[in-house]
From TrEMBL:
It comes from the Bacteria. The lineage of its organism: Bacteria, Pseudomonadati, Pseudomonadota, Alphaproteobacteria, Hyphomicrobiales. This is 2-oxoglutarate-Fe(II)-dependent oxygenase superfamily protein.
Length: 200
């Protein structure tokens, strides 16, 4: 069984994380921006439509197929440097690139067997182009502390992190979390675009 470290925090937000985020975003826009350039045998045939009933529905791929290996390696080096100085040399695992368009979501789940922390790095240019798509992590004790009696909605049960550009969100992999359904766009250039992975 994988030996995991004990997390030292529940959630952490790091804005302006990667100096090359604009370059990575430009690569994505160049890759996806001209539909007429997409051919049967071309590089655009790389997206996995990952559907797991009642749990996941979104597009994912190896980000190197979209951004190029050099940029992904640079992102991982930035993450490793952060881990060395801030997280006691935790190991950063290779990311997925995830793309959420209209109707796509993560239902409530956890990733307790994947790592100590999950990371979500946003390359989403404008969160006002859709609703939903936030990274939502269960608040401490929220499912046990039911008194005093009061009405609540999902914002009261979860810490909510909109997918703002160049923002890194870290959270304890054991915690229930979700991505609410994205509504409002089928345009990949306007969807929720993130690099996601785990730290051990």
């Amino acid at each position: 069984m994988q030996d995991y470290r004990s997390p030292s925090f529940r959630t952490r937000l790091v804005p302006d994380f990667w100096p090359r985020a604009d370059q990575a975003r430009a690569k994505f826009e160049d890759f996806m921006g001209n539909p007429k350039s997409h051919t049967f045998s071309g590089p655009h045939q790389c997206w996995d439509f990952w559907y797991m009933p009642n749990v996941y529905c979104y597009l994912r791929t190896d980000p190197a197929k979209v951004l190029g290996r050099e940029l992904v390696d640079d992102f991982l080096q930035r993450l490793r440097d952060f881990c060395a100085t801030e997280l006691q040399d935790m190991t950063a695992l290779h990311p997925w690139m995830s793309l959420h368009l209209n109707g796509m979501r993560h239902e409530v789940h956890n990733d307790s067997c994947n790592g100590t922390y999950a990371y979500v790095f946003s390359l989403t240019r404008d969160v006002d182009r859709f609703t939903g798509g936030e990274t939502c992590v269960a608040r401490s004790g929220v499912f046990e502390e039911l008194e005093p009696r009061r009405n609540n909605a999902w914002h009261g049960f979860f810490e909510v992190f909109p997918a703002r550009f160049n923002q890194l969100v870290l959270f304890d992999d054991r915690l229930p979390h979700m991505v609410p359904v994205v509504q409002g766009t089928m345009n990949p250039l306007a969807g929720r675009l993130c690099l996601t992975g785990h730290l051990r």
